[in-house]
Design brief:
Elements lengths: L11 H10 L12 E9 L6 E5 L5 E6 L4 E9 L9 E6 L4 E8 L10 E9 L3 E6 L5 E4 L5 E4 L5 E13 L5 E16 L2 E5 L6 E7 L2 E5 L5 E9 L2 E4 L4 E5 L3 E6 L5 E8 L2 E5 L2
Parallel strand pairs: 2-6, 2-8, 3-7, 3-9, 8-10, 9-11, 10-11, 11-12, 12-13, 12-14, 13-15, 14-20, 15-21, 16-20, 17-21
Antiparallel strand pairs: 1-4, 4-7, 5-6, 16-19, 18-19
Amino acid sequence: MVGMSSRRRLLAGAGAALSAALAGCSGLTPFVGKREESTERVPVDGASALAVAVDVGDVTVRTADREDVHVDVVKQSSSMNADLSKLEFRVERPRDRVRLRGVWTGNGGLSGKPSLDLDVTVPSSLAVAETETQVGDVDVEGVTGDVSASTSTGDVTVRSVAGAVSAETSTGDVTVEDVDAFGGAETSTGDVTVEVPAIGGDTAVQANTGDVTAAIGADVDAELRASTSTGDVAVNDLSLADGSVDERSASGTLGDGGPLLEFETSTGDVTLSALE
């Protein structure tokens, strides 16, 4: 996919191992380990955008009628020997951004790190630019800005964004709905469900093992292509000029044509329909 990094696929193995190690932190199993909670209030001070990046942990971003950034921070580890003081929450101010980071200063790779969950509430005036974790879920809703949301192992969900959205994971599902414009999505193992009201150039949705489901806006002008190696392609209620649709592929012109809009999976179904 154009502009998407593939480096996170290298982290999928480590992420899967870590997810298993942290399994005791959720569900019905009582938590055994260490846990610390804190609340931070971060001044905006003229910044125009927010970026969030952690290595291990979930990232949630919402908006509210407030003047500063509110952050609920949760550090935890399934190991009683973990030193949570080595996992630091930091606020950085590069250029015009507020950047929230989780920084591990201890030893060991991903599998040795405690998790740092960030539940972030931003002022409605502050755009959200980047939300990233390597192992964990990303959930963004109700914000403004051109959002890039990514993880290596986990689900990415982005809804109700006044801006363009791109989303990526290696192992997990991707959902992008109710956004101003769509910039692309990618997963290696998982399903992709997206709404495409508008695009700004060549745009792709790619999965290796998983289903791709997309609703495309009536005003989208593009050259459409869809394909699967093992599965079915279905096109419902879309007007395709010079269209060609068969069991494994589809192509044609949407509206006046233009950039390439591509949907692809290796093992799974591709289902395309009109965005209502």
